[in-house]
Amino acid sequence: MTTPSQTVGPFFGYALPYDGGPDLVPGWRTGAIRLHGRVLDGAGDPVPDAVVEIWQLDGDGRVPRRQGALRREDDAFSGFGRCPTDLDGRYHFTTVRPGAAGDGSAPYIAVQVFMRGLLRQVFTRLYFPEDTAAHAADPALNEVPADRRATLVAAAEGERAYRFDIRMQGEQETVFFAF
């Protein structure tokens, strides 16, 4: 007999978030940026119990090689962060702008969303608006229809902040990738 599938959550709110999870680097670190946004459902309402996870390269386009830990020390960069959404669907991270990987892709942050009602987490990417020329050559971004690419590009808010709303369904639904 096969065990039936279960949806993701809401149990993850007790096991996955941890203190300092949204802070890939401390806010005082040179080059630190703030990345924030909201997770919204198909009706445009906030998802108050999702978990957003990011994975990224460092500012030089390299995979961090330091041994990981849930408690980050000094200005160490892990390349991984996790943040639960609040009652208004908001999440935030303090991180660095990733460098390009050198494989023809534009700098990006890999994003996963876990939330109730999903059988598996969903995967997307966050690109930066300053990298328009690199977007034109990015292999993954070029697989996305031109009229949907904007859902993968964060909005700059000043010099050190970016907003990236994740729309799960409906108008301006974020593009999700299958792996």
Automatic annotation (TrEMBL):
InterPro entries per UniProt: Intradiol_dOase_C, Intradiol_dOase_core, Intradiol_RC_Dioxygenase, Protocat_dOase_a
Pfam families for the chain: Dioxygenase_C
Keyword Oxidoreductase: yes
GO terms for MF: ferric iron binding; protocatechuate 3,4-dioxygenase activity
The Intradiol ring-cleavage dioxygenases domain, residue ranges: 33-170
EC number: 1.13.11.3
CDD domains reported for this sequence: 3_4-PCD_alpha
Keywords: Dioxygenase, Oxidoreductase
PANTHER family in the cross-refs: DIOXYGENASE, PUTATIVE (AFU_ORTHOLOGUE AFUA_2G02910)-RELATED (PTHR33711), PROTOCATECHUATE 3,4-DIOXYGENASE ALPHA CHAIN (PTHR33711:SF9)
Family: Belongs to the intradiol ring-cleavage dioxygenase family.
Name of the featured protein: Protocatechuate 3,4-dioxygenase alpha subunit
Organism, scientific name: Actinomadura namibiensis
